[in-house]
Specification:
This protein is of the alpha+beta class. It has 11 helices and 7 strands. It binds flavin-adenine dinucleotide.
Length: 371
């Protein structure tokens, strides 16, 4: 038995005991639904108190100093047990990894232990009404004024912003430098005066993302993560984390899902050739994604492909399940909710079209599209 096998057995034991005690939070994906925030917070706090959080983060910042392979094992066993591996992706992965990579000692000490313990919730403040796919065109301004940056502008689609304590923010800090060069990256205290958060209702009926308005917000210069005007680099690393956040754990969840679909699909009495064909296609695509993920093994350059194939397949699975239900899929239940939720996953973190452009231009070396 290797050290990692022993670690896995311990993880399984901890999750099983916690589940039996009713302390875990059911798996929800990247964005914590509003009605599960408190459960997710206390599950994260419990995991941290027992040494099951921040596994590969530095010991001096609340982590256990283990390897990324240990974190992968944790994600895998959480997926198998269908419990959330963390409070939300925006904090535990996007904010924390960027702070580990680019933060000062003080920023690491301030934010990492509290994030690991589920004490603070993060949101991601990148997209704007006129800057989503073309993120480099963002217009929110943070202009230096003494010890502060004065922040003005608007963000949109900011998941979890209505209860976030901090946000990872991209804002323009120079009007002279070219588009991508004049952007900086901030760790924004969401309680600062001049920040207004307005939740948006999605077609599922939930309010998971928000509009965020900034009106002369005085942001302390110490909130800058990385050098001024180097925010594009920091943000691209964050997007790499976001798009690639689906390794072996994702394979396990996908396998479980496809098993359920296959069992229901083959058990359905009134099957016809079209439904059989659709089921077969889904299972073949699932098998191909699984093989692909095992082969790429988290390779950063292939994160856009992982994101593209995963979200397109999930969407097809949602459509298949709904179509198997016939008119019943129009009644609001779990299948309906999945169907209404899945188009968003093909857009969040960069749309499918954008992932295809990246793959075409950067990986396959095809001609760049006209700007
Ligand atoms: C569920 C959900 C959660 C989200 N959470 C967050 C969050 O927490 N924080 C955050 O900052 N953002 C978040 N977003 C926003 C997301 O990142 C953007 O919606 C996304 O980047 C697309 O930008 P846009 O909506 O402005 O669409 P646009 O960029 O306006 O694109 C509109 C359409 O045009 C297509 N298109 C645009 N440019 C090209 C091109 N060059 N080639 C081909 N097609 C193109 C797009 O694919 C899309 O179909 C979230 C989105 C969703 C759906």
């Amino acid at each position: 038995m290797t050290e990692l096998d022993r670690f896995r057995a311990e993880a399984v034991g901890f999750i099983e005991r916690s589940k039996a005690a009713g302390i875990t939070c059911p798996a929800f994906g990247a964005i914590v639904p509003p009605d599960m925030v408190e459960t997710a917070r206390s599950w994260q706090a419990h995991a941290f108190a027992n040494g099951w959080s921040a596994l590969h983060w530095p010991v001096e910042n609340g982590g256990r100093g283990l390897t990324r392979a240990h974190t992968t094992v944790w994600y895998e066993e959480c997926a198998r047990a269908q419990v959330a591996p963390y409070l939300n992706l925006q904090g535990y992965v996007l904010a924390a990894e960027s702070i580990i990579r680019s933060g000062t000692e003080e920023q690491r000490a301030t934010f990492l232990p509290r994030t690991a313990a589920g004490e603070i919730v993060w949101c991601q403040l990148f997209s704007e009404p006129c800057a989503g796919s073309d993120l480099g065109g963002l217009q929110t301004l943070a202009l230096r004024d003494g010890d502060d940056y004065i922040l003005n502008g608007q963000k949109v689609w900011s998941s979890n912003a209505q209860f976030a304590d901090y946000g990872i923010l991209m804002a323009r800090t120079s009007l002279d430098l070219s588009k991508h060069k004049g952007i900086s990256f901030f760790l924004l205290d969401m309680t600062l005066s001049g920040i207004e958060v307005r939740p948006l209702k999605q077609m599922t009926g939930d309010e998971e993302f928000c509009e965020v308005f900034f009106d002369d917000v005085a942001v302390p210069a110490s909130s800058l993560l990385g050098p001024e005007n180097d925010g594009w680099r920091v943000a691209m690393e964050v997007l790499g984390d976001e798009r690639g956040s689906f390794g072996e754990a994702g394979v396990i969840s996908l396998d479980q899902r496809l098993d359920v679909i296959a069992t229901a699909g083959t058990a359905a009495g009134d099957r016809n050739a079209v439904a059989t064909d659709a089921l077969a296609e889904l299972l073949v695509r699932g098998g191909a994604l699984k093989a692909f993920l095992q082969r790429v093994d988290g390779e950063a350059a292939l994160a856009p492909a992982t994101k593209l194939i995963r979200t397109e397949l999930t969407s097809a699975a949602d459509g298949y399940e709904a179509s198997m239900r016939g008119a019943g899929a129009m009644l609001l239940d779990e299948v309906t909710e999945q169907l209404l939720y899945s188009p968003g996953m093909r857009i969040a973190g960069g749309s499918s079209e954008i992932q295809r452009n990246i793959l075409g231009e950067r990986l396959l070396g095809l001609p760049r599209e006209p700007s």
